[in-house]
Amino acid sequence: MKSKMKTIILACAIIGLALIMIKFPKDAYEASIRGLDMWWEIVFPSLLPFFITAELLLSFGVVRFLGVLFEPIMRPLFNVPGAGSFALIMGMASGYPTGAKISARLRQEKQLTRIEAERLTAFTNASSPLFIFAALSVGFFGDAKLGLLIAVCHYAGNVFVGIIMRFYGRRQERRQKQARKSSHGFMLRALKEMHAARIRDKRPFGEILGDAVLNSVQTLLMVGGFIILFSVLSKLLFLVHLTPIIAAGFQIIFQMLQLPLELALPFISGLLEITVGASMISKESIEPLFTSIVIVSFILGFHGFSIHAQVASIISETDIRYFPYFIGRILHGIIASILTIILYKPLYLNRQAFDRDNLAVSAPISENDWMASLSILKEIGPLFSIGFIFLAFLILYRRHIKHVK
């Protein structure tokens, strides 16, 4: 009975969405174009190099090498193997959903247990520096100095989540007692692990590179689909006045927390899609700015359901469960908000006063650098995206012809 009810609810929801799209075709089209532009101008070209590099490093055993080196750090702090350091570093450098992608690959290669993979997935997804400094701080709020505050709170929040999640699943985990290896000669052991991993992979270099491109493009096509879907969904929910209704309920919570009620609607939009919510918050021009940044920090930590859907799709290929990731996102949002409250004065207000007193010019230079990077991506991003999608189809075609022969 429960399964039938679920089927009916899902069918009604999809039919309702289709009817709304028919009623508002122009708005749905414009939202779809906005999502597509974001994907092929910024997301695809900024993530693809990291995805391909991650695939190659995994194939050539470099992650095994890093696993031995970082085991003394990752195990005591986060209760995951040293190989998890690769997901942590790449996730912070390139942005979501890179951390989930690498965590899933490490699980598929059995470098992690299921519990360890769930811990790792919960804290290795983060927003990219490009989005925080260029799009968010400069593009939306017009203040490059906000970038440092938001970035420190965001990345430190992720680390704190990792430390908390180290206690997750300890009762379920079957501990395999292994003899402690001496730390002497750990570099030699790391090199041996890397060499052994490379030898085990019998594929020629051309095939490894082709697989890296294909897997990366396939994942990014899925990511693009979710970005477009949630861009449309966010717009349609607003048009049928469902988002404002939900926001009205959140106004009670905002009132209890003494937050501006005007931020309730942008907050709900941000829970669906980060970029939309952050943009709406910046346009509200709430004074003091402090409250807006606290809300933005929570949204960045929570990731938005668009990112949640991407992560859920990626880990569905493994036995990694979604719920620990969801809990990790709530924790990240709360911790990042608390850190923003604590660090707002020393990392933002005090820096503003120091720059005024010393007539510093470092902020405009930093602002120009980040905006130049974003501008370059928007100019060459579409060509880059189309080029690699064509390359992926070409590789598939050649392999199909070879298989037929």
From TrEMBL:
Per the record, the domain of life is Bacteria
Point out the gene that encodes the protein: ylbJ
List the InterPro entries hit by this protein, alphabetically: Gate_dom (IPR011642), Spore_IM_YlbJ (IPR014226)
Keywords attached to this Swiss-Prot or TrEMBL record, sorted alphabetically, are:
Membrane, Transmembrane, Transmembrane helix
Q: Per its record, how is this protein called by name?
A: Sporulation integral membrane protein YlbJ
UniProt source species: Tigheibacillus jepli
Transmembrane portions of the chain: 6-22, 42-66, 78-99, 120-142, 148-168, 208-230, 236-254, 293-315, 322-344, 380-397
Q: Where is the Nucleoside transporter/FeoB GTPase Gate domain?
A: 43-140, 220-318
